[in-house]
Amino acid sequence: MVSSAFMARLKRELEMLETEPPPGVSVWPKGDAVDLLRAVIRGSMDTPYRDGFFHLEISVSSRYPFEPPRVRFLTPIYHPNIDSSGRICLNILNMPPKGGWKPALNLSTVLGSIQLLLSEPNPDDALMVEISEQFVRKRELFDKIARELTLSHAQNEVLPDSESMPTDQLKWKPGSPSSSKPQTQMEEDEDDDGYHGYSRKKRRVGLSESSSL
After folding, report:
1. Known catalytic membership, residue 205
2. Rounded CA separation 157/47 (Å)
3. Tens-digit pLDDT profile for residues 139-154
4. Which of 27, 82, 88, 89 is catalytic?
5. Confidence grade of residue 6 (pLDDT, cut at 50, 70, 90)
6. pTM, whole model, 2 decimals?
7. By the 8 A CB rule, do 130 and 198 touch?
8. Residue 143 belongs to what H/E stretch?
9. Which residues, in sequence order, are CB contacts of 147 under 8 Å at separation 6+?
10. Domains, the chain, ordered by start
11. Are 150 and 43 in contact (CB under 8 A)?
């Protein structure tokens, strides 16, 4: 049963996000479900995500604010800390002692932190290890691929009816750096759920504890 305190706090936060949202961020409830939200983060100008519209799904537990919201990307994004299913590796999205969530934090803080993560990826706590290595060692190539994916899949200010991009549309353009790869589509099966055929086995040990599931 949803408590009145939970509803009151969530209502206050949504009102705050409507009147004073973080720059480049929009949030709204999905239909009548106040505990299920949609958000859009606009990519910053000094990043390969510039002018992109990145849609997110936010699920707020009845235990909120004593538990963090669950957040995932609906828009495909090429980023060291975000995997192909939209999960985000961000400290405040997890409970202590592994994570840094505190009841004093709020949805605005979470969205602002995710927006900052787009501007400042954290390769030391990567969810996609090979993308992280590319970010560190081959930054120009990383920027090029991230930019191409932004132009291909992050141009919708409003999501289609499906509210997420069908995986059969996630193919790279001919001539892109990944076009010679046999696996160029984001998969979510048991064996491989990364970009360019990146394997789960190549992820760091313990990452499942530091990502938002």
Report:
1. no
2. 18
3. 999 999 999 999 999 9
4. 89
5. very high
6. 0.75
7. yes
8. helix 139-153
9. 48, 49
10. 4-160+172-209 (3.10.110.10)
11. yes
Give the model confidence (pLDDT) of 73-99 as tens digits: 999 999 999 999 999 999 999 999 999
The amino acid at residue 109 is T
Contact 104, 60 (CB under 8 A): no
Per the structure block, which two tokens stand in for 121?
């990826």
For the record, the structure tokens of 75 come out as 């828009």
CA distances for 16 relative to 27, 32, 92, 115, angstroms: 10, 19, 20, 17
Helix/strand/coil for 114: helix
Q: Other C-beta atoms within 10 Å of 118: how many?
A: 23
Residue 79, both tokens: 């980023």
C-alpha to C-alpha distance for 212 and 151, rounded to whole angstroms = 26
Say how far apart CA 179 and CA 177 lie, in whole Å. 6
> What six digits make up the tokens of 70?
């669950």
